[in-house]
Every structure is written in C-alpha cells, then in structure tokens.
Amino acid sequence: MYQISQTPQFVKWLKDIRAKAAIVLRLKSIEAGNLGDFKQLENSVAELRFHIGPGYRVYFSRRNQKLILLLAGGDKSTQAKDIARALKLAKEYVDEQDH
Q1: 2 contacts 33 by C-beta, under 8 angstroms
Q2: pLDDT score of 34
Q3: Quick one: fold of 3-98?
Q4: Beta strands 45-49; 38-40: pairing state
Q5: C-alpha angle with apex 33: 30 to 35, nearest 5 degrees?
Q6: CA 9 → CA 16, 77, 88, 90, distances in Å?
Q7: Which of 1, 58, 67, 82 is disulfide-compatible with 74, CB 3.0–4.6 A?
Q8: Around 13, how many Cα atoms within 13 Å sit in the side-chain half-sphere?
Q9: Is the four-CA dihedral 42, 46, 52, 53 of positive or negative sign?
Q10: What integer pLDDT is reported at residue 99 of this predicted model?
C-alpha cells in the first residue's frame, strides 16, 4: 500500500476531465499497492502511461517504499521537457528533505 502526495505543479497540470477520471482510478489502484504499467526512467523518477487523449503521462517518484510523490504530468508531445521537469522536481524534493 502506498500513500500518494502531489506537488503543486502536478495539481495545476491536468484540465481534461476524462483523463483526470482515468488518472484518479489509477491512483486508487496504486494506493492499494498495484502500480500497474510504469516505466522506470532516471534516478528515482518513473512514468505512468495513459492511453487516453494525446497519450498522457504522469511522472512520479517512490520514496521509502510507502510514499508515491506525483511530480508532474504531460503528454507524448512534451515528453522530453516533462521528464526534465520531473527530474528537477525530484531533486528539489530530496534537497528539501536533506535540510
């Protein structure tokens, strides 16, 4: 089982109601311990893929095996930029925790 936390950037990101509903359902599954289809990227950042709309992506980081931190979101067309932003947010989170 996981506890899910969201960055302010993630909260502001998605406006598509249909996609938001799909993401909320997936997050409920994650809270129950089932990550489902995800891809590990760099460092501690991973990507959830959604086959809806323009190919939505949610970038997250697992912390201490109990916390999922939702970093950012995007779609296939902005993937490289979104991954860079997620990596930066993950590093900022780690730096905050260390101080």
Answers
A1: yes
A2: 92
A3: YaeB-like fold (3.30.2310)
A4: antiparallel
A5: 50
A6: 16, 18, 12, 12
A7: 82
A8: 23
A9: negative
A10: 57
